[in-house]
Amino acid sequence: MNYFPDEVIEHIFEYVGSHRDRNALSLVCRSWYRIERCTREKVFIGNCYSITPERLIQRFPSLKSLTLKGKPHFADFSLVPHGWGGFVYPWIEALAKGKVGLEELRLKRMVVSDESLELLSRAFPNFKSLVLVSCEEFTTDGLAAIAANCKRLRELDLQENEVDDHKGQWLSCFPDSCTSLVSLNFACLKGEINTGVLERLVARSPNLKSLRLNRSVPLDALQRIVARAPQLVDLGVGSLVHDPAMETFAKLMTTMNKCKSITSLSGFLEVTPRCLTAMYPILPKLTSLNLSYAAGIPGSDLIKLIRHCKKLQRLWIMDSIGDKGLGVVANTCKELQELRVFPSDNIGQHAAVTEKGLVAISMGCPKLHSLLYFCHQMTNAALITVAKNCPNFIRFRLAILDATKPDPDTNQPLDEGFGAIVQSCRRLRRLSLSGQLTDKVFLYIGMYAEQLEMLSIAFAGESDKGMLYVLNGCKKLRKLEIRDCPFGNTALLTDVGKYETMRSLWMSSCEVTVGACKVLAMKMPRLNVEIFNENEPADCEPDDVQKVEKMYLYRTLAGKRKDAPEYVWTL
Amino acid sequence: MSTPLEHDYIGLTEKKKIPSSSSSSSSEDGKTFKETELRLGLPGSESPERKPLSGVSLSLFGNLNNNNNVMNHHVHVAGAKRGFSDAIDAKWAFSDAHGSDSDLGKPSALFSPRGAGNVVGKPPLDPKTISTQQGNSINTPASASQAIKESKPLQEKNPQLPATNEHASAPASKAQVVGWPPIRSFRKNTMASNLTKNNDEAEGKPGFGCLYVKVSMDGAPYLRKVDLKTYSNYKELSSALEKMFSCFTIGQCNSPGLPGKDGLSESSLRDLLHGSEYVLTYEDKDGDWMLVGDVPWEMFTDSCRRLRIMKGSEAIGLAPRAVEKSKSQN
């Protein structure tokens, strides 16, 4: 089978990066499995409970970069109670014990204690990159340990984490000898930082390409910092609020004019609309713009700004831009690939977005492939038009604020609209539904959504048939999350083998009973079937006929986990 | 792998649609009108004797329509967004039809005390009528954000811990569906604290980003400050002021106010602060005391230097009709 010596194959494998391709390689034959496992440096684990760290280390001795995901996706929306799990400490401990040469750690929805950060900072001398997304439990003390001890740190990227800010001087913990920073993102921190220390840190980091500040960094400090880093590619502005000294503002504009490389802009956690003009010099080159946290910018100012952004590929914005503003986006941003429109919570009569905005975008932006759209209403006609205009969707997530709202023009459910989307977008991998929906939409999904990997359903469907259409039809389904739908035991138990082909299934407020979950758990030993019972005392055995509030099941080779809290029953 | 199910196309097309949901969209006006009452009670309380807020009393502030939504701040409305709650009801009903054991006994699933990190307000009174106003959370952002404000300190410490009980006293006593709309809690908290910050920052520069003016009320022991830039019309200002000063008028809730039916076309804050006799006035750039509501909103914010909630008896010359009323009562 092998015509080449191992070294040659190894060399070829170096060109194969994606973990899916690597997984495929390892299945070809035993020697490829062996070669692949010895050369793999990056591993992605979508569910931290699917495997033990020891087993991971055993298989991949050259491990350098690890990505771990913890809590189920619906934890983002407060559906998973506190303490469920996803602790990273055991992983770091095991990696340290195994003397792994860890260089990069990327965590999502995990519980990260200061203790784990401290251990991380000490156990891996070559550690270069830490990315934490939607994690919790750590404080700025943990960050201080990372800053102080990771001598080769290149990347510290904190995205949307709940961090307890002890207002310590964690930034000062970067030693003077630390000059290797390439990316620093602390936008989610709520506390004050010492801007002088930050300036000096930026000044001694010639490779710094990405810098995202938190809201405590005022305009004058922003100007000084950016002046020291004209090579920046990605900038997150903290606070852009009027400074009484007009010269500072003029200085900022001049500084921004000198930034020839910035292609990504975000932040504006506090902003006075008038100050946005300071950003105008860099707008024409932007490929990514995130204004989704910039509360209080009137739609008219957003529109004025967008007109300058002809090269935009990614836009995250609030619905205060309005349908009209989305029309401007459609006319201006012909390269747009990803759009996210978030609902604004502001006092005032901000124009919200409807189906009209989405249709306009679909007409103007043919390259659009990823969408997250919060809106007040949607029509079948609009969805059908969008499907026709944009057949390239990979991710299509629609969140109608009134979750079961039908088509306001016809009073029909949105089955036909979503049906058109799945029929037209053959490459669709991720789909989130909302609005009034019957079983029919699931029939369409089962029939047409051949590449679908992740499906989110809420307040939809009429009977078990709906769920069965999906389980039967979507061969590539990996994650299915369902809440408040009338799917019950029949749907759950008809094809139990399916769940081993998937990463996980979440069902909450559905019609599934404890008894059915027990049956499932018994039939499928390599699934962990977890039931959350928050109302019962821990030692009270639930009745088999009782409906299950929340169920989360996932395939695993690690068996029942030992760190589950009291309210979680693994059947 | 099990054999694929046959799709019963014919069966599907004959299936009838969920009836209640289709009637949701047009039903709101009649239903909610009655319930759009301004309340001045303690947050969370439900004072039964309320004068219905006829749209007329808002004529103080110019061209106000009977916009139910904004006035819903304190109202625990069962089914203002009927579509949503009805659909939920329908779904529960459906599950019965399918013969599964009808233990609807966990209706609190949506509001399970320990899981509902985001639930604001009291648990539903009737488990089967799950009042949801998540739609209104966009239309009445003031109270929604305020509610989120309330929950934020709890959430910061223990992001997932229940807040239902603690929220019994939240001013927005609407129940929201946990986790809908599907916005990351980090984002929700951040936006909520944005609003808090905007209100807290005292030293705004007038005319640039914020416009703080003092608000005094006759008889109140201290003054307040409001940022006029955070409102875009008189309606919002009046409801915010009402909220702010409600604690001073509680004692007057039950006073023999004017019955709702008589021609309450008088433009006076009195109509909003039920039963009390106050008039909202402001001092303009020239130092004159003017009645709020005469000029367009933008002109008002440009010229307003401070606000005063004046006792009706002193409002002679400003609000002639108010004078008539007090005269008629003498």
UniProtKB/TrEMBL annotation, chain A:
Keyword Nucleus among UniProt keywords: yes
**What is a GO molecular function of this protein?**
auxin binding
Principal localization reads nucleus
Q: Which UniProt keywords apply?
A: Auxin signaling pathway, Developmental protein, Nucleus, Ubl conjugation pathway
Q: In which compartments does the protein localize?
A: Nucleus
**SMART domains linked:** FBOX, LRR_CC
Cytoplasm recorded as keyword: no
Q: In which pathway does it act?
A: Protein modification; protein ubiquitination
Protein known as:
F-box domain-containing protein
Specify the species. Arachis hypogaea (Peanut)
